[in-house]
């Protein structure tokens, strides 16, 4: 888990870790949370969601970037929980988020889903919290 405001390097580090895992022969998926959610909805629409979750469960590492930018509905929250539950103690997950855990209640429509998802994500996890000046704001090249 990597938590920080935007612009502090979470995605860059997650990409580097995924790349290194792939170099070592691991099966890796790097996806943004919005793309994952869209993919799950497409799988629901065509009736292949169970197959989609099974194929994700076969990977060695899943990187979910940008969790927190897009809120989820009940269906998406439930399927994200299923992905996390399937991965629990079987495969590696890296999740980046711009929100501290205290704000995850705003992401999930159901407080129970927040609790059980975080329970599985955080058990045996390393949590890295970044702070500092946003990278894109350094060097005087930024304009707001």
From TrEMBL:
Transmembrane segments: none
A GO MF term: ATP binding
Entry-linked InterPro entries: IstB_ATP-bd, P-loop_NTPase
Residues of the IstB-like ATP-binding domain: 2-138
Keywords from the named record: ATP-binding, Nucleotide-binding
A matching Pfam family: IstB_IS21
Organism domain of life: Bacteria
PANTHER family: ATP-BINDING PROTEIN RV3427C IN INSERTION SEQUENCE-RELATED, CHROMOSOMAL REPLICATION INITIATOR PROTEIN DNAA
Name of the molecule in the record: ATP-binding protein
UniProt source species: Alicyclobacillus fastidiosus
């Amino acid at each position: 888990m990597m938590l920080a405001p935007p612009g502090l390097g979470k995605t860059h580090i997650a990409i580097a870790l995924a790349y290194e895992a792939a170099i070592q022969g691991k099966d890796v998926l790097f996806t943004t949370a919005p793309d994952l959610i869209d993919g799950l909805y497409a799988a629901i629409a065509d009736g292949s969601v169970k197959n989609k979750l099974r194929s994700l469960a076969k990977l060695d590492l899943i990187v979910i970037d940008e969790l927190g930018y897009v809120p989820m509905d009940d269906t998406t929250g439930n399927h994200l929980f299923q992905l996390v539950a399937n991965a629990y103690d079987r495969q590696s997950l890296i999740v980046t988020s711009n929100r501290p855990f205290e704000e995850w209640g705003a992401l999930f429509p159901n407080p129970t889903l927040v609790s059980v998802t975080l329970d599985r994500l955080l058990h045996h996890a390393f949590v890295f919290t970044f702070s500092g000046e946003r990278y894109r704001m350094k060097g005087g090249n930024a304009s707001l």
